Amino acid sequence: MEVKARRQGNSTIFTIPKSISVPIDTKYNVYQDADGNIVYEPIKKDSYDIWADSNLENINFDELCKQELSDLGYNPREVAPVGKEKTDA
Fold first, then answer.
1. What's the pLDDT at 41?
2. CA angle 14, 19, 23 (to 5 degrees)
3. Hey, what's the torsion of the CAs at 69, 73, 77, 78, to 10 degrees?
4. Are 81 and 87 in contact (CB under 8 A)?
5. In the chain, N or C: fewer CB atoms in 10 Å?
6. What secondary structure does DSSP assign to 9-50, as a single string?
7. How far is CA 88 from CA 9, 80, 84, in A?
């Protein structure tokens, strides 16, 4: 299958034929090897995505936060920093 490079702004565009079936929003690393071949390698997803974990859908984060503050014995947001902590964050 032959595709032709085209210009769009300052970029060179290659159209990927539908028959190759690339999922939308897939990220790739791209490089040109010593022979001049342009290589696209899919970037693998992180091994764990907290936002996609269905086990966390029913967690009560407010209750969890209250429990953590109770375990700590104080609220770190209400305590002024002491020492050399960075305060410009």
1. 92
2. 75
3. 130
4. yes
5. C
6. TTEEE-PPPGGG-PPTT--EEEEE-TTS-EEEEEPPPPS--G
7. 40, 13, 12
pLDDT at 46: 66
Q: What is the pLDDT along the chain (89 residues), one digit of tens a residue?
A: 888 999 999 999 998 888 988 888 888 999 999 999 999 999 887 677 788 888 888 889 899 999 999 999 988 889 887 777 666 65
**For residue 7, what pLDDT is reported?**
93
Residues 52-75: b if buried by 16+ CB within 10 A, e if exposed: eeeeeeeeeeeeeeeeeeeeeeee
Sequence-distant (≥ 6) Cβ neighbours of residue 40 within 8 angstroms: 28, 29, 30
Q: Coil, helix or strand for 85?
A: coil
Radius of gyration of the chain (CA): 25
Distance, C-alpha 16 to centroid of its chain:
24
